[in-house]
């Protein structure tokens, strides 16, 4: 590898860690350049100056300090080559926010950087066909970004790749010892918890009853939060009274709801029988499942909504096109109704483009394999953890023209209708904002409905414009999801209709 070698040499020449070698003492009188160096005289060699002298630098011999040179220089070179090559191979290193790297020095035991390097590192495997195997702890962790390998793993070998890793202590407490859908091992417990959520709550025919249920929960939560203004809030403090209230409703047949009875997620959990442990869920487990339901559903959806609205503010022509489509469907209507949404292909395209360009999660939750499997000639050993990059798949230039451009038209057919797009990636993976295969987000249908419903109504009620013609900054930062670094600031003007 001549280039890494040249890099190391150049590094050592330009920034030698020691600017002097240790003082040398001469053992007998010696004449150096017509100078007498007396016996026992101390000679200090400036090695930094040596490496920087343009006249000397031309001469390769000047770098070979004879006799007393570091005995481990070969080993040091090997270490530097090995680590630099691997660090550059595994990660792309970028300065933070385009900061210039300050290369000034200071003297410590060696000559070190005055301001230690601060950099963002991006795994190279985001760009490569298949990630390398990185050993973390006792089990290897694998990173996959290529879309066909995603398909091979998540769809074609879905059962093998569907497991989750054992929770660490804190994770184990939060998930009530892995009694939530996203943490449960792939097996009967995961099956029953996931089936209960999808059939009882996420099933499309129930979709209509969700809004009042959410409104009810929201009102109770709001009341609870108002009482606790200024105090620290624990999720359990809010959820346990709600769970108890639902229990009471279930036990006390006399208590009637005002209006129609609405099934809540808690209701579906109260009688659930765990298949292997042959018992019902305890209170802590119900809290964990409700927290999972709220956490998995709220942050992801609101992040996606935020990104989509920001793009509509940044690109007024897209917002206008969307508004015209809504007007064509809604006419003089006060609001966009859920039934109207199916008649709006451009709206759907805006949402899909938002999820492609800004998926709220850049990785799926880690998957664990249940048996040895070879993926792209690489052995993924049993219990190895596989991390799938979602964002990179949707930005692949081989699949998407101008992948960084926000262009909803890519999801519209040539006649302006809806271009059929399989968000589950069953036949082919082109983007996976919700994952794919057995662990795919069970609520992707509900999430799409919410996004379509809220975006359509927000654009129908208001025209959204940037504040004082500000450009909208779409840089991101990582929190629970990948959010906007600088929150959207926009002015809203009621639509004159
Ligand atoms: C825009 C909104 C949403 C996005 C982008 C999203 C994305 C995801 C992703 C990427 C996963 C991981 C899939 C995997 O590891 O293979 C996931 C899992 C999950 N999501 Fe969502 N999600 C959204 C909304 C929701 C909502 C509204 C709910 C609940 C009502 C929900 C509940 C879950 C659950 C329970 C899991 C775990 C599934 C399992 O492990 O089997 N998500 N979601």
UniProtKB/TrEMBL annotation:
Cofactors (names): heme
Gene Ontology cellular component terms for the protein in this record: membrane
Subcellular location: Membrane
Keyword list, A-Z: Heme, Iron, Membrane, Metal-binding, Monooxygenase, Oxidoreductase, Transmembrane, Transmembrane helix
Gene3D superfamilies xref list: Cytochrome P450
UniProt keyword annotation of NAD present: no
Residues bound to heme: 441
GO molecular function: heme binding; iron ion binding; oxidoreductase activity, acting on paired donors, with incorporation or reduction of molecular oxygen, NAD(P)H as one donor, and incorporation of one atom of oxygen
Organism superkingdom: Eukaryota
Keyword Transmembrane: yes
Listed Pfam families: p450
Topology versus the membrane: Single-pass membrane protein
Family under the similarity heading: Belongs to the cytochrome P450 family.
Name recorded for this polypeptide: Cytochrome P450
Organism in which the protein naturally occurs: Theobroma cacao
